[in-house]
Each structure stands twice: as structure tokens, then as C-alpha cells.
Amino acid sequence: MPKKAKEMTAKEVRDLKPRIGKDGKPYNTYYAVGGVSGLNLEAAATGGKSWVLRVAVGVQLDTKGNPKLDKNGYPKPQRQSIGLGGFPDVSLSQARDKAREIKEKIAQGINPLEEKKAARAALIAAQRRNVTFREVAKDCYDVKAAEFKNEKHSLQWWRTLEVNAFPSIGDMPINEISTDDVVRTLKPKWDSTPDAADRIRQRMGAVFEYALTGDKPIRTNPVNPARWENLKGKLPAFQAVKKKSGKANRHHPALPYKDMPRLMADLRSKHANGAKALQFAILTGARSEEVRKATWDEIDLTEKTWHLSAERMKADRPHTVPLSDAAVELLRTMPKKTPGNLIFGSAQGKVMSDNTLSKLIKDMHAADLKRGGDGYTDPKQDNRIATPHGTARSSFKEWARKATRYPDEYSEIALAHVNTDETRSAYARDELLAERRPMMQEWARYCYQGDQSESEDAEKEAG
């Protein structure tokens, strides 16, 4: 039989210290304190003391799940060390009581370690059930922040929830939020500003989706209450509301391509960076942001190309633009040594605002009307004033389709649209750079000179 330890007193326990090794340094020392077999006080080398119950819990198992046997054929006990807390927070008498309770449970077939693990898991589950929408949104945002292309979009995403969702559901446990709560959040904006309301819905949906992800989802209710299929019948149909509010999907107003020479002549008469940036956007079919953030290191004037990295493109893939002679000539008029290496920087040396180009067209439109001209509008959209995006891209696309015989994928690649098998395969090769070059050269010639065949026909008729 194992030797029975002497029952120590509280004073004796208090006076226990770690033993000193041969090297003269203290080491962690276990002392049997008696009263309950297996109860020890660990005197740590660092000076701390804690209670440890060394006890057999079940039996040892082999890899097949069978009990391991000793030399006498008996199952080998599985010895465990169970912490009972630190001393003096847990006194000697309390440690003995805890040890007796644990041994009693073991005698009843209860594994105290598994019980403790289950209790901890239940506590965590209860805490997870009480996690608020705001807390989950913060965790979701921390993950999504790496996906945003710039700081502005990152702040907009969070601000949308902060202003529109948190006041109504921010402090609610995410498990308790229903579709009715989402409807209550969206309703104030759904009828008046449907686009804004749908962005709120989508970002709320991303938070719920985050809470539903993983093998231990935070939200145990499997329904994402911000998904549109779960809101049908509780909110008016999105497109119907947009149409009723006069905000149905419309393209960016674009100038008819036949009016492009008139606009380009007007732009050429101006010397501000905004006018040159808009000319360059039109000549290249590029998006406003791509032009406004263009830098000299992206330009190869010898090869007459403009190389944009994947990070600069909406489609997240590199894009190369063959530059026409007119585009190269325009670039040669721009200063090379600029703040941030920007080609079309603002007067303050920063990235030009998108509003600069929008205001430019509006001012040119007003001035042309004042001169008795037709202005710069899109007749297909109730004569709304043309936008930089529509004019630079939609006008080019209309010209390519109606006035040329170039294959459609040429202009699609020029616009960095990768939405068909043809354009995908072309991108996989060389972006049809050589094939697109004469198209861009012809587009530049049209922008500044118009349709030469029409001019020749007019001269013949006059003659």
C-alpha cells in the first residue's frame, strides 16, 4: 500500500518552500499535505504556490481504444494532475474539500476534467449567444478591411453601419435579431433612397454571414435576416421602389459619338489639367479614377503604352492601353517632375478630384448653350448633361460598334471588360495589344477630325 502522508497544518503549509538543487537554484517542488490522498502543494521556483490533486481518472487506452494492461493483467490507470487553485487564495481546508468532491465524482464514474471542459464550453456558448451585432460587425470589418482598395472605401463601409444600423440593432444580441428588426432598420430609407438602403442591407448581410461562418458559428439561428429572399413581402421590391422614385438603373449619360469632335475641340482650347485629363480619358477609354491617379512610371512613351497594375483596376487584373499618337502628344505637354509622380495632379499637387472633371463638363455645357450651341447632353437620357465616365467610355463603345468593323472583344478589352469567353481568352494571351492599337489610333483621329468620309461627301454635294 502507498505510504499515507502526514496531515500538515495550515502553518506548515504556509512555511513550505521550493527545494534547492545541486546548482544552488530552487526548483518546482511537490509536497503531499495529507488529509486526502494525492493532494499536493506545488511550491514553484518563482515563489508561487498552488494546489494539485494527483489522481487516477479512468484507464489508459491503446491506439485502438482498448485498455492497456499491466504485467498482472489489470488495466493501467490514467493518472491526471488536476489544478485546484493557488495558495493562499484557496486555503488548506478548502483544497481538501475540493479534492474530496473530485474523488467522489471519480468514484461515481464522472471525469472531472471533462466536466470542467463542458462547463467552460457552456459558458463560452452563453457568452457567444450574447454577443451584439456591433461586436460581430467590428470583427467582420477587421477581416474585410484588407479587401478594400483604399481607406475611403474602408471608412465608408464602417460608417454605413455606424450611422444606419447601430442605432437600431447595434446593441442587440446577434442571435435575437430577426427580419423584422432588419426591416425596421431599412424602412426609413427604403422608399426615399433605395440605393443607399440596399447598400445598408448588403453590409448588414455581410455581418450576419460572418456570424454564420465556421464550425462554431456565433449566430446559431441559420437564417441571414438581411438576405433579400428573407425580406420579400416585408419590403417593397427594390427595382419597383427605384422606378417609382425616379432612380431606376440608368447608365452614365454619354455624349453621342458624333458630337465628340466638337467636345474635343472645346477641350483643346483649354489648358487646365482637368481638360487634359478628360481628353486623355476619352482617348484611352479609361475610367476617371484610372486617369486621375495615373503616374509617369506607368507610361512607356517609347513603346506608346500605359501599364496599369491589378490594384489600379476595377476588375483586379493588370491592363495595358496602347497609346495613340494623339495621346502621346498630349502626355508630352505635361510636366514630368510632379508631386507623387502624378501626370494630372491638382493645383495642390494631389490627386485630382472626380468633381473637377464633372464640373468641367457642366461648365462647358453651360458656356456652349450661352454661345447658342447644343451643349453636351445625352439625348437617350432626357438630355441629361454628359458625365466624364459616360463620355470617355460609352461614347467610345458606341463609336466602335456603329462606325467601325473591329470585333467587339477589341473594344471590350479596351474598356477592361472581362465578361465573355472571348475577352477572357484574349486577356490570357496578350490583351490583343497589337490589334487594338490601330483601333485606338483611328478613335483619336475621329475625336479630333470627325468622320472624314462625311466631310468628303459634304464637299462633293457643295461642289
Automatic annotation (TrEMBL):
Keywords: DNA integration, DNA recombination, DNA-binding. Gene3D superfamilies: 1.10.150.130, Integrase, DNA-binding domain (3.30.160.390), Intergrase catalytic core (1.10.443.10). One of its GO terms (biological process) is DNA recombination. The keyword Repeat does not apply. Pfam families: Arm-DNA-bind_3, Phage_int_M, Phage_integrase. PANTHER family: PROPHAGE INTEGRASE (PTHR30629), PROPHAGE INTEGRASE INTS-RELATED (PTHR30629:SF2). This is Integrase. It comes from Halospina denitrificans.
